[in-house]
Fold this protein.
Amino acid sequence: MEGHDKITIVIGVIGADVHAVGNKILNYTFTKAGLNVVNLGVMVSQTEFVEAAVEADAQAILVSSLYGHGEIDVKGLREKCDEAGLADILLYVGGNIVVGKQDFNEVEKRFLAMGFNRAYPPGSDPALSIKHLNEDLGK
Amino acid sequence: MGIYLLTDFGSTYTKMTAVDVEKGAIVAFSKSFTTIETDVTEGYYNALAGIRQQLGDFTPKASLACSSAAGGLKIVSSGLVPDLTAKASRLAAASAGGKVVKTYSYELTEFEQEEIVKIKPDILLLSGGIDGGNKKVLLQNASVIAETEGDFFVIVAGNRSASGEAQKILEAGGKKIILCENVMPAFGKLNIEPAKSAIRDLFIENIVSAKGLDKAMAMMDMEIIPTPLAVYEACELLSKGSGSEKGLGELMAYDLGGATCDVYSMADGLPKSGAFISGIQEPFAKRTVEGDIGMRYSLHALYDLIREEGGMAEFDPEEVADWLNICKAAPDVLPQGEHAKFAPIDASLAGWAMRLSAARHVGYVERIFTPSGEVFSQEGKDLTRVEYIIGSGGAIINAPDPKTILQEAIYSPRDLNALKPQKSKILLDKENALAGMGLLARSHPEVALRIMKSSFTEI
Ligand code: B12
């Protein structure tokens, strides 16, 4: 049966962000790598991420943000997950998650403090996040 | 003469329409009280006697029927997330012609379990989780339902990976169960047809006889189906056309009765102004049914809703209360004769019934400001371009001024972001033909369509 050893993830571009190309590439790459992907596309609200993860019983949500508002858009996502009973779900974020060029170590700290398990600098290879998923889920 | 008798066993009246299929016209109509408590065929023969008075003696070529008698087809549906599988299960139950009394989400509580016992549903539609997704809620709710008192069928239409186990749990609890495809197999993807046909089959094979309609069933040339399903099929035919007979295109229909308000839309509902769709994409043929919006049995509930919206402030509350109580005591009453002074109140209540049930049926658009300007996101169906609105049901067709009532189904500035029809023509089903034509459509779709097109009048 499906869904037994396959990792299920939810992906999408958060907020009012319409950058669609990266999302399509991520969907392709993750699916090709054997993950069970629920792709929500662009302009995805926090609620949509959480609800999709609940119905799909996902192990991770991979949020993209490209247009510079990532920091505001993702605030409270971890709390919403807690509220919905997704206590152990992994939260990753990547893209151009903050405005302009900032020291990524600082940026990463801020996102981890908001409850993310991992944050990726611009141009990160999706393969890295697959490796991390396997590690974080003990596979 | 080839006369088809089309009978609608309603909660109060048994309505019979005689159609001459060769002429392609309605030739007689008659109604009589429904006699479900004793023998439902009594009411049938009384109505038939009325038809014979008009047509003389004849042998009908065929007799077809639908029913909403004995409480209609009562369904409780459940799912996981309100906007996702719970919504999908409600859409499936409504499209099958059910009176969807309640829709639950997440794990059923003890309170909700008691509520189900009180509702005494005919069918419980259990869903939750996309295929391969969340299993917990389906299994947990199966356990609760297994221990819920009541002689109802359970249709399991949830996460495929957990359905087998849910079935075992329910069967161990002595429930009659039907396994069915998931109402939402993948995220955001609706799959309501299998659950819809499972409900239809259950109605025909089991529920009809449980409701005392088996004697009537034996007299018919086809299965008895739920009345709202007949209306649904009539609307679909009227919209899409059949063979060389063209349909009317995108339309909506309102059937306002004593207990419920049924709303149908036959339209793709896609964004007409470049908005993004968020949430699930709803089906072309959609029905919603509002159990708390009706003109007699649900009038108190309706008035409460209206007051919450601040409506009907122009009327004296005591006078409204008087009318509500009169209606409660005698659901057959009309605002005429000694009750003529209540006519404006009754009309306002009916208008509000339209507004509120429209608000629950249509989609909404939201304006979002982004760094590169504003964009729009749409949830539900965009019905702004719908060309026709059809008004049906006693509370509309018997009203002195049905147009004012039905106009509430059209967009006005106070509807804000609601994607209601903006300039539709309003048609009145003054002969109450909708359900009958849905029945006739099963054997003579083109005749049924022509009759609807000629008998629905623009107001
Ligand atoms: C094309 C483009 C647009 C197009 C988008 C068309 C579309 N529908 O897709 C349009 C013209 C609409 C656009 C608009 C805007 N854009 Co623009 N856009 C770009 C551009 C040139 C390319 C984006 C792209 O497709 N890249 C290719 C894909 C494959 O890469 P990617 O999106 O980065 O995704 C990859 C990785 O980031 C990673 N990844 C992404 N998410 C995640 C998540 C995880 C968990 C992981 C592990 C990895 C990962 O994997 C992906 C695949 O390899 C970039 C500049 C650039 N070169 O990146 C600017 C850029 C993203 N845009 C930018 C801006 C500012 C805007 C606007 C605000 C401009 C404006 N003021 O109007 C608007 C915002 C509109 C909105 N509401 O979203 C800025 C963002 C700056 C910031 N973050 O500080 C950029 C970086 C340009 C810049 N240097 O200033 N844009």
Notes: The interface with chain B takes residues 1-3, 6, 8, 16-18, 36, 38, 40, 42-45, 48, 51-52, 54-58, 67-69 of chain A (CB under 8 Å).
